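Worked Example 4.2. Read the sequence first, then its structure tokens.
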Amino acid sequence: MNKQLLKASTPLTSLIRWKGYKYPGGIRYPGGITYYPRHPNHKDPECTPSKLFRVEQIKSSRHHPWWEKKVLSELKLEGLSQVAIVKNIPEMNAKLWTIKHLIKVTPITFPYGEPTEEDIKYTILKENGQCIVTKTLQPELQKLEALEKFENDPKKMDSTTIKKDSRHKWNNAFTGGF
């Protein structure tokens, strides 16, 4: 027989067998996740998490437990294809984790900058999570001055003069109209 099988178990070996063997090293993240990089000099890429999530219900809550239905009603997702916007905070992420099989979560990005209070009426949230802000347009002073100069120019021909001149040239084509 094998000598290790006959060897009496010590408290340390029973603890290791009970908890499982944990490899040394690794990067510990909040939430109890340990990440073991492939290379020892591995650096995580810099990324800033999104402040908001777009949550869309993609599956019915029928035949699911009451606590999942309660989370959906807290988010005001009563039917399929309904959308809610939630903050990216740990409490909300824990709720979303419980119903992850019923929803689709998309981070909201602002490619043209975050909207101000005046721009709230001019924002569009797309399905891919882009929040497009169509800023209010302001006229450029140079273009306004050029338009006023053009409108007030005495040599400018108005529409009636152009029509009269064109008609005259058309009717007198062979007598020197052109």
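Now turn to a second chain, presented in exactly the same format:
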Amino acid sequence: MPDQEVEHNKDIVAIKDWLSKQPHLPNDVEEVLLRRFFTSCGYSLERAKRTIDFFFTIRSTAPELFCKRDPWSPEIRRVFEITDMLPLPYKTPENYKVFIYRLNNPELDLFNFIDAVKTFFMLADTRLTEEDDIPSGEIPIFDSANVSLKFISKVNLSVLRKYMLYTQEAIPIRLKQVHVINAPAYISKIYALCKPFIKSEVAKLVKFHEPNSSTLYKDVPQELLPLEYGGKAGSVQQIKRYWIKRIEAKRDWFLANDQNWSVDEAMRPTNCKDDRADQVRDLPGSFRSLALD
């Protein structure tokens, strides 16, 4: 509706004005990203402001994930090689964006958890700052076919917690469903690692699907998926190459981003502290050895 669009545009102007007056936050932020915050926060101006502040704050407390992000670095190239991170080209009838994430190589000696999460967020930043078509929701599909119990020993719990906090409370998306397909019998052990960090409302969205089952298609039309999954969205390699090229084309932006989007805590006004940021700062460094029950 035209009147509503005019009001929303006024709110975006208000967000820009507010951001310009925050001495601790970056000011050079893409308008499409601000629109995503406003939309994902239910068109609440105050909620959008709080979320924007937390978005930049948590990034500044996680340099291992948001600094030195060169798409041409050997670490990122390795993630490109051994994982498939695929925003799919078509949306559901409800206007939900669908994604598939999977390891394409079962040899976990090549897998680095921190590098994988860093690359995951590079893909997210590319989408969030460049795509004007904002979906009504998002549906990630995690294909666990190549995930063994050894995966647990690869997980850095500090980074996992930051990932969970950022994706559930900071990133401007509206999660509608979460699917784990080709789930092995031991998936409960891996899920148990994540469960303490998953909000109850998100946990209710998670569905597990056994290998060779068709239960996913009750929620996600099969034709939206890549050819390898019986769909019509093109091959995994075609979709993957498209997104790698987009990330590579954004290289200069990534290399400057850790400075451009940094938060100056010394300049933060006393009335805009966020206790959630302390949860991140107080995290222990890393956990390299985890016992399997």
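Notes for the reader: The chain is about 45% helix and 10% strand. The chain has one domain: 1-268.
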